[in-house]
């Protein structure tokens, strides 16, 4: 029997999942469905689902390999509160989920075209109830703060890989959220020059 599991590992996840949960946990609703957009390996969603068994978690990713990894993680952890991962492209006009109580998006905005950020705000804005949470995590540029040298180098590296990628300006992300009825509640500075962005449906 092969021991090659489809589970994939992202080294950053082990470092950032607890700091993220520390910010995200108190913001989440007491019950309902939480959509994770761009779940990647699936390591975050299983960590959150273990910590919050009172919530139903819906992972998603446009990549078949990512969805296979997510499903393998969920199976390995024996979690009953995580649904089968959806094939969801944030930039798509139609999403395969009608209503969510909260939404989470970790490390997507800088490694996707701007259309994915526009689609995220539009899709989540349509599906959240009033007061519903959108939590975004990742590296950002801020007009009022010098960009850390490590983030400047990261931004250059991203743009070298794909001209449509790169660190987003917090002001641009906020403006896109506002257009879609998502009010900015603030941010929390996180380790390694990342930010937690908190939005609520108006």
Question: How are the secondary structure elements laid out?
Answer:
Blueprint: H1 11-24, E1 33-37, H2 43-51, E2 56-58, H3 64-77, E3 102-106, H4 114-127, E4 133-138, E5 140-141, H5 149-161, E6 168-169, H6 170-179, E7 182-190, E8 194-201
Parallel strand pairs: 1-2, 1-3, 3-4, 5-6
Antiparallel strand pairs: 4-8, 7-8
Q: How would you spell out the order of helices and strands?
A: HEHEHEHEEHEHEE
From the N-terminal CA to the C-terminal CA, the straight-line distance is 53 Å
**Portion in helices:** 25-40%
Measured by DSSP, the beta-strand proportion falls in: 15-25%
- Shape assignment: globular
Query: Given the helix and strand composition, which structural class is it?
Result: alpha/beta
Q: From the alpha-carbon coordinates, what is the Rg to the nearest angstrom?
A: 16 Å
> Helix tally?
6
Major β-sheet strand ordering: 2-1-3-4-8-7
Number of strands: 8
Low-confidence runs of at least 5 consecutive residues: none
Q: Sheet with the most strands?
A: 6 strands, mixed
Q: What's the pLDDT, averaged over the residues?
A: 96
Question: Your description of this structure?
Answer:
By secondary structure, this protein is α/β, with parallel strands linked by helices. The protein is 37% helix and 20% strand. The strands form 2 sheets. The protein has a 6-stranded mixed sheet, with helices on both faces. A two-stranded parallel sheet has the order 5-6. Helix 1 (11-24) runs parallel beside helix 2 (43-51) and helix 4 (114-127) packs parallel to helix 6 (170-179). It is globular and about 45 Å long. 37% of the residues are buried.
């Amino acid at each position: 029997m092969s021991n090659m599991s489809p589970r994939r590992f992202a080294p950053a996840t082990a470092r950032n999942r607890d700091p993220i949960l520390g910010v995200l946990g108190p913001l989440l609703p007491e019950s309902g469905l939480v959509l994770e957009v761009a779940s990647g390996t699936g390591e975050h969603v299983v960590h959150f689902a273990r910590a919050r068994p009172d919530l139903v978690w819906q992972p998603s990713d446009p990549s078949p390999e990512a969805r296979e990894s997510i499903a393998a993680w969920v199976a390995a952890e024996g979690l009953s509160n995580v649904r089968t991962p959806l094939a969801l492209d944030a930039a798509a006009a139609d999403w395969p989920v009608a209503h969510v109580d909260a939404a989470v998006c970790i490390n997507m905005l800088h490694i996707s075209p701007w259309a994915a950020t526009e689609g995220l705000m539009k899709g989540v804005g349509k599906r959240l109830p009033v007061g519903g949470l959108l939590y975004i995590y990742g590296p950002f540029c801020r007009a009022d703060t010098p960009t850390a040298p490590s983030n400047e180098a990261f931004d250059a590296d991203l743009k070298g890989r794909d001209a449509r990628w790169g660190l987003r300006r917090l002001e641009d992300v906020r403006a896109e959220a506002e257009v879609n009825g998502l009010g900015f509640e603030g941010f929390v500075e996180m380790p390694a020059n990342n930010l937690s962005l908190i939005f609520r449906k108006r």
